[in-house]
């Protein structure tokens, strides 16, 4: 990748990468640091990266950088070990976005990341697998489990309205 191609990749994908990281960790400063670290890592290897793979490489590197930070700060919870009864809500809300964000915060980081990549960023399963280092089957399972949890957490849509 040339300097011009790198600059084009920064212009095209910086906002999307930042939004993805911010939705995952919900901390503006940490998100900016992760994006900056990601672009630094990509620049250090720009000679080895094909320009047509820049987007995938950026998101993969950003995802891994984010996971490294999360692992440093806390241990990753497993969905199977979570107590779903403690995470069900029956309160009435008028702000759907706040309910969805609260529900997403309850998910393990890997599940949250794949759901955001699929539903917010629009990646297909194979692209998500490439970014996260998971197999396509694992991606599908994580998305299924996350959606089932979200469905259980949110409950009936009438409660939200």
Summarize the structure.
The protein has 161 residues and is mostly helical. Helix content is 71%, strand content 0%. Helix 1 runs antiparallel to helix 2.
Write up what this structure looks like.
The protein is an all-alpha fold and 161 residues long. The protein is 71% helix and 0% strand. It is globular, with a radius of gyration of 17 Å. It contains eight helices and no strands.
List keywords for this structure.
2 domains, 161 residues, Rna Polymerase Sigma Factor, Chain: A, single chain, Arc Repressor Mutant, subunit A, 8 helices, mainly alpha, 0% strand
Write the topology of this structure.
Elements: H1 3-25, H2 28-44, H3 54-73, H4 96-106, H5 109-120, H6 125-132, H7 136-154, H8 157-160
**SSE order, one letter for each helix or strand:** HHHHHHHH
Strand content: under 5%
- CATH fold assignment of the largest domain: Arc Repressor Mutant, subunit A
* Total tally of structural domains: 2
Main sheet specs: none
Would you tell me the structural class of the helices and strands? mainly alpha
**Rg, please?**
17 Å
**Tally of strands:** 0
Helix content: over 70%
CATH superfamily of the largest domain: Winged helix-like DNA-binding domain superfamily/Winged helix DNA-binding domain
Instruction: Report the average pLDDT across residues.
Output: 81
Flag low-confidence runs. Answer: 76-81
């Amino acid at each position: 990748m040339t300097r011009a191609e790198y600059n084009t990749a920064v212009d095209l994908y910086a906002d999307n990468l930042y939004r993805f990281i911010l939705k995952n960790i919900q901390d503006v400063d940490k998100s900016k640091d992760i994006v900056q670290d990601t672009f630094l890592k990509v620049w250090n290897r720009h000679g080895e990266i094909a320009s047509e793979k820049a987007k995938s490489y950026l998101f993969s590197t950003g995802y891994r950088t984010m996971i490294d930070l999360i692992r440093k700060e806390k241990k990753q919870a497993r969905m199977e070990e979570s107590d779903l009864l403690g995470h069900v809500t029956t309160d009435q809300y008028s702000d759907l976005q706040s309910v969805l964000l609260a529900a997403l915060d309850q998910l393990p980081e890997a599940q949250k990341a794949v759901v955001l990549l699929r539903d917010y960023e629009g990646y297909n399963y194979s692209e998500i697998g490439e970014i996260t280092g998971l197999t396509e089957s694992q991606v599908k399972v994580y998305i299924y489990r996350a959606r089932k949890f979200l469905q259980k957490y949110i409950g009936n849509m009438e409660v939200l309205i």
